[in-house]
Amino acid sequence: MQATETATMPDARRALEICNACRYCEGFCAVFPAMERRREFPAADLGFLANLCHGCNGCYHACQYAPPHEWALNLPAALARVRHESWSETIRPAALRGLLRRPLAATAGAVLAAGLAALASAHGRATAHTGPGAFYAVIPLATLIALGAATLLFALLAMAASTLAAWRGLGGTPRSIHVLRALHDAATLKNLGGGGGLCPYPGERPSGARRHAHHALAGGFLLAFAATSVATIDEHVLGWHAPYPWLSLPVLLGTAGGVLMLAGAAGLIALKRLADPAPLAAETLAADQVLLWLLAAIAASGLALLALRETAAMPLLLVLHLALVLGLFVTMPFGKFLHAPHRFAALVRDAMERDSARS
Amino acid sequence: MDSLAQTPDVLVIGGGHAALAAAITARRLGASVLVAEAAPRPMRGGNTRHTRNLRAMHREPVGTLTGAYLEDEYWEDLQRVTHGQTDQALAQMTIRASAELVSFLAGCGVHFQPSLAGTLSLSRTNAFFLGGGKALLNALYREAARLGVAVRYEAPARAIAMRRGAIAEVVLAPSAGELRVAPRAVVAAAGGFQANIAWMREYWGDAAENFVIRGTPYARGEVLRLLLDGGCAPVGDPTQFHAIALDGRAPRFDGGIATRLDSVPFSIVVNRDGQRFYDEGEDLWPKRYAIWGRLIAQQPGQVAYSICDAPAARDFMPSVYPAVTAATIPDLARALGLDPLALAATVADYNAAVREGDFDPTVLDSCRTEGLAVAKTHWARRIETPPFVGYPLRPGITFTYLGVRVDATARVGLADGAAAENLFAAGEIMAGNILGRGYLAGFGMTIGGVFGRLAGEGAARHAGN
Predict the structure, then answer these.
(1) Does any CB of chain A come closer than 8 Å to the CB of residue B49?
(2) Is A33 helix (H, G, I), strand (E, B) or coil?
(3) Alpha-carbon span B394 to B208, nearest angstrom
């Protein structure tokens, strides 16, 4: 597939052409060396550079051509717009493209639908269910697994299709070393490191705040996911039935994950409130906010479920938590979560390019 | 705050690297400091905003600097570009003091990066600021704020009450009203006068209207004029400036680095009459770019055109503006506003004179012309493969050489030979003491840093007595 030219691309191209004649920001992140490997910026390349940009805004505050200079250069905002459009253009199934611009409605609808599906399959009365198998007295285990697996599988397939569509614009096959380097860059958020100077987000002052908050959120998300995986193994392989004791592995992982997610999401939400609006693209922010609040709600409902699992609130909390998680899975392929696979693909491509530039 | 605004120990006039180095140094010595910057906050910092590195002496690899760069070599480099128009004692003091600048700036929160792609030749001699000069300024202003330096933006100095070298009062003129400041000592770090076109006209006449000013529009030289009128000793040739050839479509002010164009050695350059006027292949571009500003300033209309063909256009970094292209030389001439017959004749004569050699852009190669009145002595190749490529060129002024005389403590000298009592100077306003001619990459920032620190120290000590 040929990458599509979009309305926001001319401005990003103009910005990159100025940047390519200046290059003072070369040391900040991977975007600038990748830009310097090019003289022209076709649509697919713009999409790649836009997804390689982590939006730290360091280049904006260092820019001699930023407003009120007559060139009014604003690379982070221009790339944020292209990034958003690059997701929108590649969303699969394509019929869902418009939802990226209506993140609140899309997410609320998905959560509501998932909640109704969960309620329909629930035979819980509003009484406390305790002891082994209590959760499944509310929603049968098979239903839980079916709902979770189906939505997650949909999400993974749709996101893979979207990422592959973007990848095909540039082509090439990565080797395992490139994937490993990309994993390293993603796990360390190297490109939020500001080249040693720390990126300035949310303001002009060097700060590690966003990196730390994102580490907490992403790490918490992975721990929570691990908790679910361990619980599934306990359930199926070992025949132990949830709810698990406080000091069991799933509960410990889930608790740590939930607390980290909550802290990370709260941190990122707070940073967004403090953020200097100048280098941001306002039309892309709603999708960020909705995902952050959804992740915070998932973490909060999960922790509440753990704390109140022996009370009459358990069935309702279980349905709520399940609805939120399923809502996340369903909306992943047409919301902000797309940043994860697309940015990862950009990091892989960057590793490939760095490799061939060396040889 | 009111007392600081009106009677600071030290008033620093200017807001670039030299001014901030002076303010931070004076504050660290205990003085109360007010910085009066003419520009609004987003455009603060004078020409520092457009800089990217400084030249630092070092005995061994340190930070991003490779190898060693010792005093003798540094001094030889300076002598070569200035042709001796320098004050040897001041210059050598500056070179020695440059060894401390990287750690001073790092201590202010400035980060450095390896030399930028395409500037490998500078990796040994020049330390590059991560993010460039504006990032450096942001760090210096943060450090100044942390130390309690007061900064007033949009506050140009309009009058300086000076009697026999002693400044009693400086009148700042913010957008509304005026502010009378009676400091104990003053650091003048307000740059040169290249952005003052009326002043440039005094020496260059109408040609000054066609000069592009590469840096800040706030370098209007008002402080320099006040000091010279107040009895300070001048230094440097007032008619001279440093200029390079840049893309003729550059904005009048503030275009900075992105408007430079490196096409000259790979093209022919004609004036508005379609005639060549200088050997485009005389030497490697890093050694020649600085003379082309002057060469074009001396051509009619202060404009020139760089002409090459499609293969040659891949040999240099493009400017920020798209090349003008055409299928034939006459069409290119028309697109550039040149006489098609004149340009076609010039290209034909040139093509006929080219003697083929082994093209190598990294050395003085054997591609040259024979029999032309204006030879091209290297990198001469026929202009024959369409699309043909053209760029308009104009002189871009970097800085002026006129300044005030200073001694080795940055204290300003008076026309009668005495030294000013409480006036110090740093940066472009005094760089002509050391750099009377030519330029050495990163040396303006070195002078600013060294004299900024000296001026800050001198002013703080004077204020403390």
Answers:
(1) yes
(2) helix
(3) 11
List all residues 6 or more positions away from B304 whose beta carbon is below 8 Å from its beta carbon: B245, B269, B270, B271, B272, B277, B295, B296, B392, B393, B394
Nearest to A282 by CA among A52, A81, A54, A68: A81
Nearest Cα residue in chain B from A39: B318
Split chain B (465 residues) into runs of 10 and give each run's mean pLDDT. 77 98 98 97 97 96 92 96 94 98 97 80 91 97 98 96 93 87 97 97 94 97 97 96 94 94 95 97 86 93 97 87 95 98 98 95 94 97 97 96 98 96 98 94 97 98 92
Q: What does residue B58 show for φ and ψ, rounded to 5 degrees?
A: -160, 145
Residue A196 backbone zone (phi > 0: left; psi -120 to 50: alpha; other: beta): left
Q: Residue A59: closest CA among chain B residues belongs to which residue?
A: B131
> Token pair of B184, please?
């104990």
Chosen from B52, B53, B116 to mutate, greatest number of chain A CBs within 10 A: B116
Q: What are phi and psi of A148, to 5 degrees?
A: -65, -50
Structure-token match 């590690």, residue found: A208
Rounded CA-CA distance B389/B430 in Å is 42
CA B51, CA B35: separation in Å to the nearest integer? 21
Q: Is the Cβ pair B256, A22 closer than 8 Å?
A: yes
Domains located in chain B, CATH noted: 2-234+402-464 (3.50.50.60), 244-396 (3.90.700.10)
How many angstroms separate the CA atoms of A306 and A314, rounded?
A: 9
3-state secondary structure of A97: helix
Q: How many CB atoms lie within 10 A of CB B218?
A: 25
At B231 the three-state DSSP class reads coil
pLDDT score at A118: 87
User: For residue B171, what is the enclosing H or E element?
Assistant: strand B166-172
Q: What are the residues whose beta carbons fall under 8 Å from the beta carbon of A191, sequence distance 6 or more?
A: A29, A30, A31, A52, A53, A54, A56, A185
Residue among B246, B249, B243 nearest B264 (CA): B246
Closest to B347 measured CA to CA, from B391, B317, B384, B394: B384
ipTM value for the complex: 0.92
Helices (H) and strands (E) in chain A, counts: 14, 0
Longest CA–CA span in chain A (Å) reads 69
What is the value of pTM for the model shown? 0.93
Is the four-CA dihedral B199, B205, B209, B212 of positive or negative sign? Answer: negative
> Are B391 and B261 within 8 A, CB to CB?
yes
At residue A168, φ and ψ (nearest 5 deg) are -60, -25
Find which of B134, B212, B315, B445 to mutate to test the A interface (most A CBs within 10 Å of its CB): B134
> CB–CB of A301/A307 below 8 Å?
no
Do B454 and B410 meet the contact criterion of CB atoms below 8 Å apart? yes
| Burial class, B158, CB count within 10 angstroms (exposed 0-12 / middle 13-18 / buried 19+) | middle
- B134 lies within 8 A of chain A by CB: yes
**What are B398's two structure tokens?**
């970097």
